[in-house]
Amino acid sequence: MKNILIVETDPLFRETFVGLLKNQSGFLNVFSAKDLDESLAVIDQLKIHMVIIGPQTPEMEAFKLASHLVQSYPDKRILVLGNDPSPMFKISFNTLPKLVLFEKISDIGLLTRRIFAELKICHGGRIHGISLPSFLQMMVLEKRSGCLQVSTKKKTGLIFLLKGELVSANLGGNNGSAAALDILSWKNVSIEIDYTSPGVAREIHVSIMTLLMEALRLEDEKQNAVQEMRLHERFDCMIAMDYDHQDWKKHCFLWDISLGGAYIETEQPLSVGTLLMLALPSRTMNTQTMNTQCKLSARVVRRDKKGVGVSFENITSEQKKIILDLSDTGLHDLL
Hints:
The chain has 335 residues and is an alpha+beta fold. It has helices at residues 11-24, 36-45, 59-72, 87-93, 108-118, 132-141, 177-184, 208-229, 317-329, and strands at residues 2-7, 28-33, 50-53, 77-81, 99-102, 123-127, 146-151, 156-162, 165-171, 174-175, 190-194, 235-245, 248-257, 261-265, 275-281, 293-303, 307-312. The longest helix is centred in the middle third of the chain and has 22 residues, at 208-229.
């Protein structure tokens, strides 16, 4: 993980830019500061790998900050984002070594790739729609090295490979085989790749196939135990959908669903007890009237950092059929 510090005087732009950069990659820890003094305090406390000076920072202040950083921290990469900078501003920055000037931000993806290049991160992108076991087997066959950041609806873990061999894994406070077994059991994951060879010690001494088989066995035992406790069978899925709340339409991801409720990933702070109106995609609704969504009333019954669990209220037999239809298709044809 690399630590990035955003220095920007405009609070609204600073907050927006930090959020955009965080969404681009899980391999970046993004921090922020409003001025020189605050940025120096952050640098003294954390190991910052790159400082990015925002485009709304006045030119004289940006130059003062960049000059101080270049002289005091020659090991750090410094990126200055311009906002149609003046000719004098560009000439002044040409006198500072090891400094990159982006004259105008037109593509956050392009900026992110430049950040990866400056930090020597061989970023392979973010992958959806493929199971983790399948992707790992491809890495083994190709004898690839790198770090996989694997995310599911509630957790994020790291898997490290060296020339096609699983050498380590990290999940919270767990490392090694225990962490790998937990991560390998996840469904509907998002995988982000850094192909740089991992600089970690080997903690796993068994093959990936051995761990995959053990993960499957443990998952079967877990599912059998949980199934006995649940009133309704739960179906794994991952689909983009909408919900209505207080006259606002919000976008979200639905991660799993049953006839009793669902789990929704959303950034909106929703309190337990809040009533939502979900818009589920449907194949069975009236296509002649272009009505391809099923409206479903749901109440928030639990929440965590990434989303909420909801319980359906007064669902009809037709709505039950739609839920079962979604589970049968896995929702892939509706994406």
